[in-house]
Amino acid sequence: MCQHSSRKRGVTVNNNKLKVHPEHLYSALEYVDVTHTKRQAVTIRKIGNHLTNHHHLTISRTHVRFSMKKLGLSYKPIKAKQ
Description:
- The protein is mainly alpha-helical.
- The chain has one domain.
- Helices cover 46% and strands 10% of the residues.
- The longest helix has 16 residues.
């Protein structure tokens, strides 16, 4: 898969209109399921890191949030452990 990106203020910006393809969404859902099975918290940043590490896809956390919301997943802030 060819992916065009440009540099802007030191951040990689993906110029592709459809930033997260269905196979990426499926991979993110599997990652969420596996992580929840391990009784670990899943964060937007962790999902973004997963997509970067496994699919070489750099997207913003805002877009990850949007994609997860479109899939019907909800999220809330994690409370710090005391």
